[in-house]
């Protein structure tokens, strides 16, 4: 096990450094991955490199969220030493220069993780989705939004955001009014509704598929949900006593809602509350 970990150490430090922008924090993440490996039963693990990459990514995501909640400023550009093999020479030589690190620091934690894992390490969105606890469609959107920021392109135009806002507003109105037909018109036939573990604990169904089933779930509900920006796009929030309890994240394509996520995880609610959407 130790030999396999050492064989992957350079790669893991590269992943962690790109996510965290600090050599010391990257080392901490890799060390924590080793501790978790030493405490885990890996007899059923067939791809140790992929398993370790997932563990390091989750550790880095937690560190980024903790950093954001404490408003800490990372030590951008603390590059790893050159003694760890070719993976670290890549870190020092390729596009992960100071300019890119600075841009990465402007991304939300989940955006940064999705972008780094997909665009820099070619990890599939199905795998990334499990790491950031979102659907593959939402993980793809996170990476896309981060890519636009990195490339210097503007985010979705105001007209596009306004249209999505209108669709979400119409969905909430139809939900409150119990207008099943209107809900069906707004939903893609293959729409998927997913709830995170915290939302399931509050009584939501983990997954609902299909326009009729999703429309039935929302018809006559969402009475106290208010429009809000979630994940950079129009969504909704249910708050109780001034504190958010559930976020509604909508993925909209071709004028139809293709995915809805119910987010009640305390860490993600804190992340949202700590960075009020503009």
Question: What does this entry look like structurally?
Answer:
This protein is an alpha+beta fold and 278 residues long. It folds into two domains: 2-151, Butyryl-CoA Dehydrogenase, subunit A, domain 3 (Up-down Bundle); 158-274, Nuclear Transport Factor 2, Chain: A. 56% of the residues lie in helices and 16% in strands. A six-stranded mixed sheet has the order 2-1-6-5-4-3, with helices on both faces. It is elongated, with a radius of gyration of 20 Å. Residues 72-96 have low confidence and may be disordered.
Low-confidence stretches: 72-96
Q: Which sequence of strands runs across the widest sheet?
A: 2-1-6-5-4-3
Apparent shape:
elongated
Mean pLDDT score: 82
The name of the CATH architecture of the largest domain is: Up-down Bundle
